[in-house]
Amino acid sequence: MTFKEFGLSPIILKALDDLGHNVPTSIQELAIPNILNKKDVLGCAQTGTGKTAAFLLPIMENLIRKGRNTQGIRVLVLSPTRELAIQTRDNCRKYGTHTDIKSAVVLGGVNQRSQEEVLKRGIDILVATPGRLLDLVNQRVVKLHAIEVLVLDEADTMLDMGFIHDIRKIIAHVPKIRQTLMFSATMPKTIRVLASEFLHEPVIIETNNKALTVEKINQSVYFVNTCDKSKLLLDILRSKEDTSTLIFTRTKHGANKLAVILQKNNMDTEVIHGNKSQNARVKALSNFKSGRSKFLIATDIAARGIDIIELSQVINYELPNLAESYVHRIGRTGRAGCGGIAISLCDKSERKYLNDIERLIKQSIIVVKEHSYLVNVGANNK
Length: 382
Hints:
Elements: H1 10-19, H2 26-36, E1 41-44, H3 51-66, E2 75-78, H4 82-95, E3 103-106, H5 112-120, E4 125-128, H6 130-138, E5 149-152, H7 155-160, H8 164-171, E6 179-184, H9 189-198, E7 203-206, H10 209-214, E8 217-223, H11 229-239, E9 245-248, H12 252-264, E10 269-272, H13 278-290, E11 295-298, H14 300-303, E12 313-316, H15 323-330, E13 340-346, H16 351-361, E14 366-367
Parallel strand pairs: 1-6, 1-7, 2-4, 2-5, 3-4, 5-6, 8-13, 8-14, 9-11, 9-12, 10-11, 12-13
């Protein structure tokens, strides 16, 4: 199947052709026809499978078909993180490059006045983080009376970050008659409950997350004592100094502490997490994407929205305590059909996390037994 078979406008198809996108992914193939038909959709697919295009393309197509017969913002996309919001806005611009559809982003951590100026000029699609948007709504800078489509993107992350109360307050300002789309990387019971609250008779779409996770990613794990983790990490990074590497920690403090260690060892390293200013986060991500810095340390939440097609490897310096987070982490490599490498450093306290991960992905991760800091692990401990 190709994008042409959806009946998209030539100006949308031209943008896709310019980007080299010809064949839709599974989530796109399933979601686009339903969104074009104005159905509410609850979509679940793994990180890196094209969820953003799955909702943006049909939304933009419907805007083109209807024409501009109302004043005000017509589409609202709520995103959990600043990085994801910016990425979604950038995709709006790419897909709409040959159209007159205008898009903008509002988020915390940057000057509000510049965002107000953009909004005054008039836009069709607004991408926003909940906190800043609610501030602007309360100040009456943003009016949501003309919203035709509401999108809750990465809904599971927004729940994890405690945005549900802000989301409810925002939705109170949105017309009851609308199309609502909810996309998520996981489908826990809480997401289904939320969908029943906000969506009307939704079409539920789930793709096979677990099979996609392991298909083209070479996964391995090193057993190591906690005190030796940083030394092992340095050995791994030095063995592949030209390899762009995204390194995950569980906490912001842990990310900062590890960055100091790498920088002291003359490794150009960036850090991205929720306590960093927006300018610092944008600069860090830009340096990493451009190759000026080979290493980027991130926490799980901050990494949502990092989209780098040719990312060589992901290293779990600390294993996540939720198995699903492992899926999201390693999904940052092996994107768009490319191969990838995922390495995990596991100390004694993290063995239970590793067991949960292997149960989720339904395979054993290869144990690397030849390294300087090897810890003996009995069969009963793995």
